[in-house]
Amino acid sequence: MSWWKNSVFYEVYLPSFCDSDGDGIGDFQGLISKLPYLHDLGVDCLWITPFYPSPRVDNGYDVSDYYQVDKRYGTLEDFKECISTAQKYGIKIIIDVVVNHTSTQHPWFIESSSSKSNAKRDWYIWKDKPNNWESFFGGSAWEYSELTQQYYYHSFAKEQADLNWQNPEVIHEIKKMLKYWLSLGVAGFRFDVINNLTVDNNWEDNPYDESGKQVHLYDVNQKNIKLVLSDLLQNLREEYPTIFTVGEISSDRLEVISQYSGENLFDATFNFNFGSIEHLSVKHIGNELQKMKNISGYIPTLFFNSHDMSRSWNRIANDDFNIYRLLSLLILFNHGVTFLYQGEEQALGNFIATEIDNIMDIQAILKYQECISLGKSKNVALSQANEVNRDKSRGMIPWDDVTTGWIGPSKMTQYRDLGISWYKDIIKLRKKLLNTQPLLDFVNFTDDYIEYKMGNYHVFLNFSEYVQSIQIVNLKEIIIGKYEWQSESIIQIAKKGFIIWEECEK
E-assigned strands of 381-463? Predict the structure, then answer.
């Protein structure tokens, strides 16, 4: 079995993780200092968000140099030390790569935008006349350049210019860059918004839905994109056959998301339908689990937190530690690749901006500016900006009660130590019992509970305020749970309780 299939991944949003030098920004030396903690927690692999030089218009997802470490995070030598120290603790590291676009301050774009005759002009997408495509951050996806009197394409902020993936020189340079980081010891990559790559010449206008909202039909999932990605990934695997690759697919359709994983493509893809729900819906979570199970050969990604969504402690668990434990069981004792997010194990809550100057997220800043331009009050604009603000999960981790930083702290709760202890125990249980990770045999769910079986292990999670009675047959051993026996074969599961048991071999 590939090393990653039963690994517990832990996302590190580097600027907010741990600050070693008191400048208010997390860095590699801070991360190195917490590697013993992460090892003790049971983490197998870290996913580190972008740490490259960047103007940080989009908090590092606007890269201006693919080959260096931003000075605020340390040096390339610090990165190498982080890799080697993590390896001593048995922890692998994958890194975030942003190859759909670069910063407009990247030397490639500076050259490309200097003249129509520049050798790198075709490394980006330039048009005399734009189509109607809209940016995913709002407004037109085209920005006019006075210097060359053409428009360049940006599927996100205007400071993030899309690369031209029809150009073989671009593809060659990206392969070269990825192999550079692999040569330094990284174990793989998380590919940002990877289905947005522009790989063909279909510039047809996007349609609009009944509400007038643009449907992103022609600017994503373009024809031949999987051929381009397959070529890229196979080229990497020829030299580095054990790497792990996971793709962020900007789609809410599982049939689209799953098509980007499997043979010759990504090892896994993120299904945000499962983890990014706005409110607790047991039936929705169970339904997504069932749908992922039903796709042959698809390996689910299991997560409820990331740097792009508010913390599940507030969003789904509603500050309830019992519900929080059920959610952690669902992603840690299940079939799939588990992704934790920094501070999740500490039951941390959201950072909430109380004024516009506290907001760092470009998406929220643009929403605030849009509201002000429409004549809305500052209070209303701030409220609506906070609704889309990705900073909620990006607050500083309050190690040793540290509360200062480039952004405010994530909110501590009384369950911090309990959370860490609980996550340690469940990760140990996962490693002990699911080291071969059997497939899901069945999934059953209602508005109140989720029940599923993997091999001989049976899991019942009661999210309701009521006791649930279930019959257990062929019992070999109860592994863990909050329950009481009602009769010889009937067990009552406590409200917001759970049970995992092993069945006898048939």
Answer: 440-445, 449-454, 457-462
For residues 274 and 330, give the distance between their C-alpha atoms in angstroms, rounded to a whole number: 11
Rounded distance, CA 57 to CA 477, Å?
54
What are the backbone dihedrals phi and psi of residue 504, each rounded to the nearest 5 degrees, phi first? -70, 150
What is the pTM assigned to this prediction? 0.94
Q: In this structure, are residues 133 and 141 in contact, taking their beta carbons and an 8 Å threshold?
A: yes
**Annotated catalytic residue 248:** yes
Map residue 62 onto helix, strand or coil.
coil
Place of tokens 């749970």: 481
The residues near 487 (Cβ < 8 Å, ≥ 6 apart) are none
**In angstroms, what is the C-alpha Rg of the chain?**
23
Spacing of C-alpha 74 from chain mean position: 24
Rounded to whole angstroms, the Cα distance separating 402 from 98 reads 31
Antiparallel, parallel or unpaired: β 490-493 and 483-485: antiparallel
One of 192, 219, 267, 361 is an active-site residue; which one? 192
Strand partners, 454: 440, 457
Element (H, E) at 150: strand 150-153
Contacts of 112 (CB under 8 A, 6+ apart): 118, 120, 121, 122, 123, 124, 126, 161
Predicted confidence (pLDDT) per residue in 100-127, tens digit? 999 999 999 999 999 999 999 999 999 9
The one-letter amino acid code at 480 reads: I
Q: How far apart are the first and last CA of the chain?
A: 25
The DSSP secondary structure of 249-265, one letter per residue, reads: ---S-HHHHHTTBSTTS
Q: What is the mean predicted confidence (pLDDT) over 196-220?
A: 95
Closest by CA to 164, choosing from 120, 199, 115, is: 199
Residue 450, beta-bridge partner list:
445, 461
The two tokens of residue 433 are: 């019992």
Are 25 and 76 contacting, i.e. CB atoms less than 8 angstroms apart? Answer: no
* Chain segment 9-19, per-residue pLDDT in tens: 999 999 999 99
Query: In this predicted structure, which of 101-105, 166-170, 250-254, 256-260 has the lowest mean pLDDT?
Result: 250-254
Distance CA 462, CA 445 (A): 10
The Cα 261–Cα 28 span in angstroms is: 31
CA distance linking residue 280 with residue 323, whole number of Å: 10
The β-bridge relationship of strands 440-445 and 449-454 is: antiparallel
Q: Point out the catalytic residue in the list 248, 267, 345, 391.
A: 248
Q: Record the tokens describing residue 260, joined without a space.
A: 């980007």
Per-residue model confidence as pLDDT tens digits over 445-473: 999 999 999 999 999 999 999 999 999 98
Told to judge if 192 belongs to the known catalytic residues of this protein, a careful annotator would answer: yes
